[in-house]
Amino acid sequence: MTRISVKVDGTAYEDEVEPRLLLVHYLRDRLGLTGTPVGCDTTNCGACMVDLDGKSVKSCSVLAVQADGGEVTTIQGLASADGEWHPLQRAFHEQHALQCGFCTPGMIMAARDLLRENPDPTPEEVREGLEGNLCRCTGYMNIVRAVLAAAAEERRHQAPEPGAVAEHAEPSTAGSGAPV
Amino acid sequence: MIPASFEYARPRTVEEAVGQLALAGEEAKVLAGGQSLLPILRMRLAFPELLVDVGRIPGLRGVRTDGDTLVIGALTSHHDVVHDPLVRRHAGLLAAATATVADPAVRHRGTIGGSLAHADPAGDVPAAVLALDAELVVQGPDGRRSVPAREFFTDYLQTALRPDELLVEVRVPKADAWGFHYEKFQLSAQAWAVVGVAALVRRDDGRIVESRVGLSNMGPTPVRATACEEALAGADAAPDAVASAADSAAEGTRPASDLSASAEYREHLARVLTRRAVLAAADLT
Ligand SMILES: Cc1cc2nc3c(=O)[nH]c(=O)nc-3n(C[C@H](O)[C@H](O)[C@H](O)COP(=O)(O)OP(=O)(O)OC[C@H]3O[C@@H](n4cnc5c(N)ncnc54)[C@H](O)[C@@H]3O)c2cc1C
Ligand code: FES
Ligand code: FES
User: Fold this and answer.
1) What are the structural domains, with CATH classification, of chain B?
2) What ipTM goes with this model?
3) Is A176 a member of any domain?
4) Considering only Cβ atoms within 10 Å of each terminal Cβ, which end of chain A, N or C, has fewer?
5) Which stretches make up the 2Fe-2S ferredoxin-type domain (chain A) (predicted)?
6) Does B201 contact ligand 1 (Cβ within 6 A)?
């Protein structure tokens, strides 16, 4: 057994774990954070994606001991403290970007990572950013749409530049743009 | 699946890591980014007794220059290689090939050293490193030695690394004067190359002075398309001359037949992709 300390979605944990324990199983089975699913055995599907120290990773292919001292954010840590959804969560809901929902946590974590590096991606860049995430249901069209919509909303909130947001007619002020 | 049990060590220095590897012999495996090793352990294709996690050894990550050489630490992630300004300036071919590896999340964890030590002939990084004539610096109980990329890949998933040696850095001669292109043929996004071609071309106005062409997945190891390189030396920098040189790209290769392609089809791909890669590297497209 190896002792690890990790911060997950803002809470600090200390645990004894077997070295072979995968990070995704630590999250699901030890911490009860079952929002992060396992979809494959080959590191291909991306369903298990979480953020480790600021970068998206496939948590089925990271050992819990490798996350020792690190900070993990899962899909369950995205909503704000008062329960308000992350713009990506809202956009996936509004744009019908999911059917069964199994790929959704990973899609959102990958998209969040993409938008951090590239806040204004083209549809092609969204597809490349989500290259490591497989969806069996939707055909991806609405997923791409949702990511673009969330990107536009985040840009509107972060840097309100008058005249720079062609797709929104009304002038945007912080907090006023949340869709109903 | 859940991997079989193993012991875990997290050395703080290269010397400590090498000592642990020497003690455990064939039973130990180095763990870097884990993006090849952990899938293998999950599928229970390997049963090491000890994983030596080198991921936190300071000094093995990052890129610097040393005169005319670019020095890349073995633990530098694919993501960092792709975005590093020094790599982009002096070894653009490596950044271009690495950008096609897997997907962003795998590139965040996977390392250049892991790709080379794993030595999958379908990998994109080995062919580029081979074309760049890099030197691989490895460290064992008796200190460091340098292995030319051409001698590093010995057979399918086999390298010149001994069980108690660690790959510590990749030394790439600066290739500022060379045009470059990596051409990868894959059946789906995120997939390995069916065939990949890493091309470097140096030309003066009307002629190709010199070229270096590395091939992915055209045999048990990454290989150089030597006959094609010879045919290109001194050739006209023109599409016809490049096409006729590229016809020899598969000479001397031993590609496998598998579910993605027959050996014959791989030979065909090598010729077509080499033509495209060299044309792009020579700025003839
Ligand atoms: C879904 C998926 C798709 C992929 N697609 C591609 C692709 O298209 N192209 C491609 O090139 N690669 C691809 N890869 C592989 C990827 O490039 C891996 O990151 C890389 O092969 C291994 O690097 P790593 O640091 O993760 O090594 P690890 O998995 O930690 O180690 C791999 C092997 O190298 C040894 N090793 C690692 N570092 C050292 C060192 N410094 N010294 C000595 N031995 C060492 C380990 O013992 C192990 O045997 C893919 C992987 C996945 C999961
Ligand atoms: S469960 Fe991790 S990539 Fe599929
Ligand atoms: S919504 Fe079912 S897998 Fe994507």
Assistant:
1) 7-53 (3.30.43.10), 63-173 (3.30.465.10), 179-281 (3.30.390.50)
2) 0.94
3) no
4) C
5) 2-78
6) no
Q: What is the pLDDT of residue A162?
A: 57
A129 touching B (Cβ < 8 Å): yes
The tens digit of pLDDT for each residue in B71-83 reads: 999 999 999 999 9
Domain holding A46: CATH number?
3.10.20.30
Biggest CA-to-CA distance, chain A: 59
Indicate the pTM of the whole model.
Answer: 0.94
One domain for residues A48 and A101: no
Q: Which residues pair with B65 in a beta bridge?
A: B70
For residue range B83-97, what is the model confidence (pLDDT) as tens digits?
999 999 999 999 999
B109 contacts A46? CB cut-off 8 A: no
Residues B164, B23: Cα–Cα separation, whole Å: 8
- Enumerate the residues of chain A whose CB falls inside 8 A of the CB of residue B42: 22, 41, 60-61
Taking the CA of residue B44 and the nearest CA in chain A, the distance in Å comes to 11
Domain, as residue range, for A141: 78-159
Structure tokens at B90: 């002096």
DSSP B51-99: EEE-TT-TTSS-EEEETTEEEEETT-BHHHHHH-HHHHHH-HHHHHHHT
Which residue of chain B has the CA closest to A107?
A: B105
